[in-house]
Amino acid sequence: MKLVHRGKVRELYDAGDGLLLMVASDRISAYDVVFAEPIPDKGRVLTAMTAFWNEELADLAPGTIVAADPAEIVRLVPAAGELPAPSAGYAGGAAPWWAGRALLVRRAEMLSLECIVRARLAGQAWDEYAASGTVHGTPMPPGMRLADPFPKPIFTPSTKAEEGHDLNIGFDAAVDLVGADAATAARDLSLALFGRAAARAAAAGFVLADTKFELGWVDGVLSLCDEVVTPDSSRLWPADQIVPGQTPPAFDKQPLRDWASAGDWDKRPPPPPLPPDVVRSTADRYRAAYERVTGRRLADWYGAPR
How far, in Å, CA of 56 to CA of 50, rounded? Predict the structure, then answer.
């Protein structure tokens, strides 16, 4: 199977017949730099959570997943069973090496936007607001504090950069980039998806502060692609521990970002080595996020260590 793309976290393989094998590793990045130390079970969490959200959101948007069961993937694409493991980012688990980390998906014509929805002021949005009172160039209510809610969730797209960093843009710029119809459809769908996901997170005691959706067309229908509402693509906060003006504790990779930015690292390769306690606590948060939000045990997902 031909390797189509290797990203910071995932490998994509051409599975033929308009299909891709999308494999999530245990690699973790911050500030677009990949750390050397893998986070145990991270790839399984991302894959299991994406499969869960595809089920939960199917009535709002079709997903691209064809199969998650390793046996079904090998039945449909026998070559997948002989796929050699990449050199780094994968550890332990059942055979094949990608069990529980891989999804067989349909190819999509990807929308050239990162479809970000924000319900709380955090991250880059907070940095911009603190400097100018705007978020993605749009004026926001005065006097907002870090972690404060917006009056309602807002669609804040960004570009997809082939190299370097994505560029935050406003809706008008999104229209210029992909056209009015596509931008409007992406905005409306992203807000609907976010509303459903936020309600499910709230039922589990979390606030979904923001998340990023990847959308694309399959047979002319705007569909949900790539990872969906995972700890890598979202900010997930325990609802009872949010203090306005402070960075909330997070069941995502924000604590790792905070650790990385607290030292003298200039945010360029090579990154500093992750201490064992940071690796362990990050893995624990990812597992807990999956189990609390979905109500399922990670041990029951494919590829559990034997």
Answer: 10
What would the two tokens of residue 181 be?
């119809």
Residues of the chain with pLDDT under 50: none
In whole angstroms, what separates CA 306 from the centre of its chain? 27
By DSSP bridging, strand 138-139 and strand 134-135 are: antiparallel
**Cβ distance 45 to 298 under 8 Å?**
yes
- N-terminal to C-terminal alpha carbon distance within the chain: 27
In 3D space, the residue among 107, 125, 111 whose CA is nearest the CA of residue 213 turns out to be 111
Beta-carbon contacts of 21 under 8 Å, excluding residues fewer than 6 positions away, are 1, 12, 13, 15, 73, 77, 80, 83, 98, 102, 103, 104, 105
Which of 187, 192, 236 is CA-nearest to residue 49? Answer: 236
pLDDT, residue 89, reads 79
Q: Using the structure block, give the residue that is written with the tokens 């769908």.
A: 189
Asked if residues 48 and 301 have their Cβ atoms less than 8 Å apart, the reply is yes
pLDDT of residue 118: 98
Q: 118: buried, middle or exposed (CB in 10 Å: 19+, 13-18, 0-12)? A: buried
The backbone region for 130, taken as left when phi is positive above 0, alpha when psi lies in -120 to 50, beta otherwise, is: alpha
What confidence score (pLDDT) does residue 93 get? 65
The pLDDT of residue 164: 56
pLDDT at position 305 is 80
